[in-house]
Design a protein that fits this description.
Elements (H helix, E strand, L loop, with lengths): L1 H15 L2 H20 L4 H43 L15 H25 L4
Helix pairs in contact: 1-3
Length: 129
């Protein structure tokens, strides 16, 4: 079942992310607007569009989240492979997603300090005018 959903979500994400989908959605909105005077802008006329857009939005949230989760996982795996392959890299960074927010903040601050040190060293090594 997971594989069927994955394939469906990927296909649907690719389809709804195309310009054709945008054009179709735009055409539906224009058609709905044109039918307004025919139905005298009734509550039912409004309710149809509200219901359709709510249902589509509800379903799209799941498709987008699935695609985003998959994309994030593949990026993470690629980065993990790079860390594993670089001599001297801290392979303990591979599981960062499991750290607490406090630990992530501390690690971020450590990398900021390292970056500041590198900038200071680069400035010190450049000859002055």
């Amino acid at each position: 079942m997971k594989e069927i959903f994955r394939k469906f979500a990927q296909t649907a994400s690719n389809a709804v992310g195309s310009y054709w989908s945008f054009l179709i959605a735009f055409a539906v909105i224009v058609a709905w607007g044109i039918t307004g005077p025919i139905y005298k802008y009734s509550d039912t006329w409004q309710l149809v569009m509200n219901t359709v857009s709510s249902v589509v939005t509800f379903l799209m949230v799941f498709l987008i989240q699935n695609a985003q989760n998959r994309y994030s996982t593949t990026i993470q795996l690629k980065l993990n492979e790079l860390l594993r392959g670089v001599k001297g890299a801290r392979t303990g960074l591979v599981n960062l997603e499991s750290l607490s927010d406090e630990n992530l903040i501390q690690l971020h601050q450590e990398f900021e300090r390292l970056g500041e040190r590198r900038v200071s060293l680069n400035k010190a090594q450049k000859p002055g005018p």
